[in-house]
Amino acid sequence: MAVKGEKKKKTVKTIKIDVDKCNGCRACEMICSAFHAAPKYSSNNPARSRIRVIREPLRDVYVPVYAGEYTQAECAGRDKYTIDGKEYDECAFCRASCPSRDEFKEPDSGLPIKCDMCEGEEEPLCVKWCLVDALSYEAREEEVEETVEQEVLETGLESLANKYGMQKIMDTVARMSQKD
Ligand code: SF4
Ligand code: SF4
To answer: Does ligand 2 have an atom closer than 6 angstroms to the CB of 32?
Structure first.
């Protein structure tokens, strides 16, 4: 259960993908993996990229897919895509880093990777390097109501009560509310 809080501004970042414009050059994979190499730009390995391009050159099908959240469990239900008459692998366009496949995992450590919108950069580098504008960046401000999870609140209070005793917490809250 969530309780409502103050309204706050939040920046929502989106990368729009125009698959019709993508020519499968993989510049986006290159720059992303170089940016995330340690140290930065010391190497490039598409397996480290947070964007992967599904390529079917003979059919002129190129679909950039961004790495999303890590998931601990495989899906019970899956999607099947058919593009230009070809049926793709059930997991082909999935964004998740998942235990059932190697996609979106750091090749050395096996740790999941996720697109971080090139944190610290003005604009995502894959967008900048995509010379045919198949990727475009949009950032917009949204007003959101900050919510505090009731459970988190209760857990926090419980640990305070364990530490100081419930009576002391109640006395402190009563004293604080008198100050208002
Ligand atoms: S850089 Fe652009 S055109 Fe090249 S593969 Fe990536 S999205 Fe496609
Ligand atoms: S936005 Fe940055 S981190 Fe995300 S895929 Fe593009 S280059 Fe990689």
So the answer is: yes
Owning domain of residue 167? 147-179
The span from the CA of 27 to the CA of 36, in Å, is: 14
What pLDDT digit, counting tens, does each position of 146-163 carry?
A: 665 566 566 667 767 766
Ligand 1 neighbour 27 (Cβ under 6 A): yes
Q: Are residues 137 and 163 in the same domain?
A: no
Query: Which atom of ligand 2 lies at the shortest distance from residue 116's CA?
Result: 3
Convert 113-132 into a string of H (helix), E (strand) and C (coil). CCCCCCCCCCCCHHHHHCCC
Does the beta carbon of 134 sit less than 6 angstroms from any atom of ligand 1?
Answer: yes
Q: pTM for the full model?
A: 0.76
Q: 127 lies in a domain?
A: yes
Q: Give how many domains the chain has, as a whole number.
A: 2
Does residue 14 sit within a domain? yes
